[in-house]
Amino acid sequence: MRKRKFRLGYAPTRRVTFSKEEAGRYRKLILKAIKGFGVEVVDINWLNDEGLLFDIRQADEVAKRFRHEFVDAVFVPHCNFGTEEAVGRLGKKLGLPLLLWGPRDDAPGPDGLRLRDTQCGLFATSKVLRRMNVPFTYIVNSRLDEPVFERGFKNFVAAASAANAFKNMRIGQVAPRPKAFWTMMCNEGELLERFGLEVVPITLSEIVERVKAKVANSRKAIVSKVRSLKTAVDTTDCSEESLQAMVGLKLVLQEWAEEEGLRAIALQCWTAMQDALGVVPCFINGLLTSEGLPVTCETDVHGAATAILLQALALDERPIFFADLTIRHPKRDNAELLWHCGNFPLALKDAKSPTLACHYIMEGNYPGCGEFRLKEGPVTIARMDGDHGEYSLLMGEAKTVAGPLSRGTYVWVEVGDWPLWEERIIRGPYVHHVAAIYGQFASALYEACRYIPGLKPDAVEPTESEIQAWLRGR
């Protein structure tokens, strides 16, 4: 799904009044450790014979190189006390997520001399970053081989990826929201002003005409893709004509997204599309989401923005799924059904054979709904939403559990205190739609909000204090 790895600008810093040799030693140790975490590192070994930042005049050169290399974030480990004014200028010029950390100091030598005073320098740099309005992430002063460092580093990478994805995102909007769905109202102008979020509209009639033309003019490619679809899922209930319309819709939405540089699509999935094409788009929405282009139902723009955030948390290496919060589990008080008509990504299904069926709710018995349960595992659930000019991001973690069969695509999840979740959703600016992703990412979502002005983190389980304690190593 991802075209390139996360690129991290590595700008280790020292101060001239402390040990140059110790700073150089730690520069190498830290670099070796972070390369083992799977990120692509852009070093400053070209800057001087030390590869260390220790003069404010060097900050401009480093910023220029990092911009040229398109780094996603910057890491400024303090290899001794560090140079706070250089770090401050670098952070201000780049405007990227910034990670602040330094290795825990050793004991003074036999002669009583201290070689690094790293912790003291971290206090100085953090103050300068605050003065210069540079948001930053901090990992508690710790040893390089302690779990808290690896935990904090990986959490920062996920958070930075999500925050960067949220900036200047483009979301395609296929037709207006369904008439009955007042919950899907959004303020397009405010989203642009507040977050740089661009909504790119297109009429449903234009999409339909493009689909019909695609099916008519690309017969060989369409038939080939239909054949592949039949090998992946049971299509007994679908005619050849309807399968061709589905494949045509998928190709047209992909092409439109590439033309417009879209990160996600909010699509009016009923009822005009069924009348025009004779299919529902649910299963195709899931296939596109599997391939890294999330498609949200009922023209949910806020849901599409949430989906982009979640996908970026995992560095675009795994798909999200877009769900309704529907009913509580009949036997487990803290479990809930995550469901939608048939739009979950096929890549996330459990071991049982999936079916491509007709819509069992909508009048007309239109084909195009996936029917399968999702796999087991931990899940992060989120919803970005707002009203009255205020926006927040609901976040929490759950685990999948067994539950009754449901039509469509579904999975049952359990949390620690569902009534707490329910109350938060009812009282907050949220609706019944959520985006979810396999894995535990609530702490990264919380940290991402540090870099998204105007988006307030709303942590349910774990709570804000629990996330902060976990990041400190508790």
TrEMBL record:
GO molecular function, one term: L-fucose isomerase activity
Superkingdom, natural source: Bacteria
GO cellular-component term (any): cytoplasm
GO BP term (any one): fucose metabolic process
InterPro entries per UniProt: Fucose_isomerase_N/cen_sf
Transmembrane segments: none
Keywords in alphabetical order: Carbohydrate metabolism, Isomerase
Name the record gives this protein: Fucose isomerase
Organism: Candidatus Abyssobacteria bacterium SURF_17
